[in-house]
Amino acid sequence: MTFIEVYGKDTELAAQAKERFATLSAAFEKRYGIAATDPSLRYFTSAGRTEIGGNHTDHNWGKVLAASIELDCIGVVAPAADTITITDLVYNEDFEINVNDTTRHPEEKGSIALLRGIVQAFKDRGHTVGGFKAAFSSTVIAAAGVSSSASFEMMLCQILNCLYNDGKLSVSERAICGQFAENNYWDKASGLLDQMACATGGMVTMDFGNPATPVVEPIPFDFGAQGYSMMIVNTGKGHADLSAEYSSIPIEMKKIAAQFGKETCRGLTFEDLTARLPQLRETCGDRAVMRAFHFLEENDRVDAEAAALRNNDFGAFLKLITESGNSSWKWLQNICVPGIAEEQPIAVCLALTEHFIKTKGLTAACRVHGGGFAGVIQAFIPNEAVAEYTAMMEKALGWEAASGKRSPVFRMGIRSTGSEEITF
To answer: Is the pTM of this model over 0.90?
Structure first.
């Protein structure tokens, strides 16, 4: 895929990307002594993702509405023998593994653990592995719900796919390898949503009824054509240390499913649960019941959201987004971290956004985004109110332009490509 196909031509995004790749190539040359003009160099990009509908549904084989976004991880790569070496400009990391040593190292955390897990997944599934030298850089917000980790994972998978497997691995196959690494080398009980959305490109529905081969359908819809912007607000609190809270959600949903002799909640109905409600509450607890209730309604809501977009009924879509956010608040309960009442960044930002929408008399919507507990929220705001909303949230979150830091408020663009090797 060409650079222009990913970033466009003569756009601000393209200009920024060219500068980023130039900086990264210089860093690669400095780190490895391989000139930026060397013909062995390869170039990669992997998108971040936004979840639009289907909050915590994928791990129970549910449905999701998601999209790849313009924030991405990029890489400059050269093949090597049996060693993978990665230097990362944003995270100030430099690490390496031997591809012949991919059993789990319990002391390892983060990027190196995910790398080792992905290589192991490739080997387990009969794919070829090999070494490479790489420099990475990313604009995907870290530990905030737009999948910086999945973007990194899909970058690694695409590099191994293109360097050693002739580009034959499907998006689903690469996503499964990333999920394996998260589940087994990071102890995070994630589904396939993040990896699939980062790797696919565009806005799509995903049905994980058969998790080995999710059904993916494109949704060709332009929020800008409706006069709206999809906004992401970084609440300022990361979620890297909240794996236990995230894992509790699929675990509790699956406890409910087990009472019906099922592996996941997919296929259960509200009536199934209410018919055995006293026993389920006694055996699994009230929160598990409420989370299963959320799964069932959120799963149906994804179908309704997709239908609203296909029918160009944006008002109905916004209503469903609000319903999704309320369900996450009241039923799924992934807005606040249990036991830490003094820290509620998601709740604060949702309250500010709801107040803004109400007092300005807007037809708009907001919801928690991604895993929840910390990270980011999502809002759909009319274009004419975006500047005022952005200024309000920046001030409320204590951001100042003079700080030199990125604004916590992002006007998010959807891009048509996911994880790709690119040529210039």
So the answer is: no
